[in-house]
């Protein structure tokens, strides 16, 4: 009973464009080029991609963008060949950026970014075979990043931003205990958390033909200091599953990026980024309940994530002074080792294909759009829950942003 009824949840979201539970949907221009572009400074989304390049912008800007995410996961169980599907609502990652200079020739720029690098809902159909592992998870995380960028000379810029992260999480699963009507008991964890970090970058353009960028986003430890655990169980077992407070923590990994941009012709730009994410920080997930019983003990669950790379490439071609087209591709390696795959993050190595367009409406407004498509599958047996089968995932993420420059 103790082993079956201990709660082992993962505070994570379905990944749509990167490894693990990281999401890279923070700028429509970059998204159209495989989410590359840390060395290609075009707009205020450089706040996220490379703060060192922010000061190179010629105008003040405000950007508002959103990328609705449509995802579906199908699980086929090994022993029965039965299938189950997710019934997840549409995800809505968004980003808002503002960059400002005191005057046009200033070597100092300021900015503020508000974006959602983690946030989604994964909901499995009722009575699916993994309901004792997970039925629903909803995660929302918002990052606030005030930033300063300084131009050392015409070729070199540096920048850094402080990050405050606020998040909410709701997780649900069934417990293998039945009521008299045959329905199963339920557990729900709900809480809020926060954390701190920073984002820093260097931009260097030795010549018009070529530019480079290096950025570092630090690890952020999201701490849930006082969540609420609610157990719906038969009255005779209520003393064994007391509702109350819990604490937990989730590490959001550090990411270092090296990037380049080649400008071979007046109309063509080619970009490439290499990301290295320190996922090994997520080796264990622990929950500490304020009140323990023989059936409800504090839990420690191995996750054993590995550090991984992602390779992003893309290009932009200007058809004329007002219209640009973009294409890109990402190859991302999963941090989830064999034996640790879960219904919360049915992750795998994947290829993302992207496309995008940009259009200058007038001297003050630009419109940018992108679309990301990825499809991947993976078979695994979880060593802890023994849930064994194949996950097949399909994701489509169209996005749109409006830029005001002045």
Please characterize this protein's 3D structure.
The N terminus is likely disordered. This protein has a 14-stranded antiparallel β-barrel. It is built from three helices and 20 strands. The chain has one domain: Outer membrane protein transport protein (OMPP1/FadL/TodX) (Porin, Beta Barrel), CATH 2.40.160.60. It has 406 residues and is mainly beta. A hairpin with a 5-residue loop joins strand 12 and strand 13.
Rg calc? 23 Å
Query: How much of the polypeptide forms β-strand, as a percent range?
Result: over 45%
Tally of structural domains:
1
The residue ranges in which pLDDT falls below 50 over 5 or more consecutive positions are 1-19
Task: State the CATH architecture.
Answer: Beta Barrel
SS class: mainly beta
What's the shape?
elongated
Strand order of the largest sheet: 1-4-5-6-7-8-9-12-13-16-17-18-19-20
The level of helicity is under 10%
Mean pLDDT score: 88
The CATH superfamily is identified as: Outer membrane protein transport protein (OMPP1/FadL/TodX)
Q: What is the H-and-E element order? A: HHHEEEEEEEEEEEEEEEEEEEE
How many helices?
3
Query: Biggest β-sheet, characterized?
Result: 14 strands, antiparallel, barrel
| CATH class descriptor name | Mainly Beta
CATH topology: Porin
Distance separating the two termini: 64 Å
């Amino acid at each position: 009973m103790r082993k079956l009824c201990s709660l082992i949840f993962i505070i994570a979201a379905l990944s749509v464009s990167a490894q693990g539970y990281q999401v890279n949907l923070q700028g429509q221009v970059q998204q159209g080029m495989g989410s590359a572009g840390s060395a290609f400074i075009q707009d205020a989304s450089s706040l996220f991609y490379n703060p060192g390049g922010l000061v190179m912008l010629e105008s003040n800007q405000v950007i508002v963008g959103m990328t609705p995410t449509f995802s579906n996961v199908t699980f086929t169980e090994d022993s029965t060949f039965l299938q189950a599907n997710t019934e997840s609502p549409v995800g809505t990652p968004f980003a808002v950026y503002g960059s400002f200079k005191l005057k046009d020739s200033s070597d100092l720029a300021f900015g503020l970014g508000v974006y959602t690098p983690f946030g989604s809902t994964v909901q499995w159909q009722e009575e699916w075979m993994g309901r004792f592992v997970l039925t629903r998870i909803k995660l929302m995380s918002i990052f606030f990043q005030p930033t300063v960028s300084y131009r050392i000379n015409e070729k070199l810029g540096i920048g850094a931003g402080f990050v405050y992260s606020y998040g909410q999480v709701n997780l649900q699963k069934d417990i293998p205990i039945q009521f008299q009507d045959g329905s199963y008991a339920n557990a729900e964890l709900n809480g809020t958390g926060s954390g701190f970090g920073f984002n820093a970058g260097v931009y260097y353009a030795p010549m018009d033909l070529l530019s480079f960028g290096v950025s570092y986003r630090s690890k952020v430890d999201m701490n849930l200091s006082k969540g609420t655990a609610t157990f719906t169980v038969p009255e005779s077992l209520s003393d064994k599953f007391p509702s109350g407070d819990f604490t937990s923590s989730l590490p959001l990994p550090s990411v270092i990026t090296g990037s380049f941009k080649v400008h071979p012709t007046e109309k063509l730009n080619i970009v490439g980024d290499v990301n290295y994410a320190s996922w090994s920080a997520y080796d264990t997930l622990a929950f500490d309940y304020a009140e323990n019983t023989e059936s409800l003990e504090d839990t420690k669950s191995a996750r054993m994530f590995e550090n991984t790379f992602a390779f992003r490439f893309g290009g932009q071609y200007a058809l004329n002074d007002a219209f640009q087209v973009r294409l890109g591709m990402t190859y991302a390696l999963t941090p989830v080792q064999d034996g640790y795959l879960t219904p919360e993050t049915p992750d795998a190595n994947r290829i993302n294909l992207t496309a995008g367009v940009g259009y200058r409406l007038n001297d003050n407004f630009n419109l940018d759009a992108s679309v990301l498509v990825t499809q991947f599958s993976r078979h695994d047996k979880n060593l802890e829950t023994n849930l064994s089968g194949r996950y097949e995932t399909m994701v489509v993420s169209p996005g749109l942003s409006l830029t005001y420059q002045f």
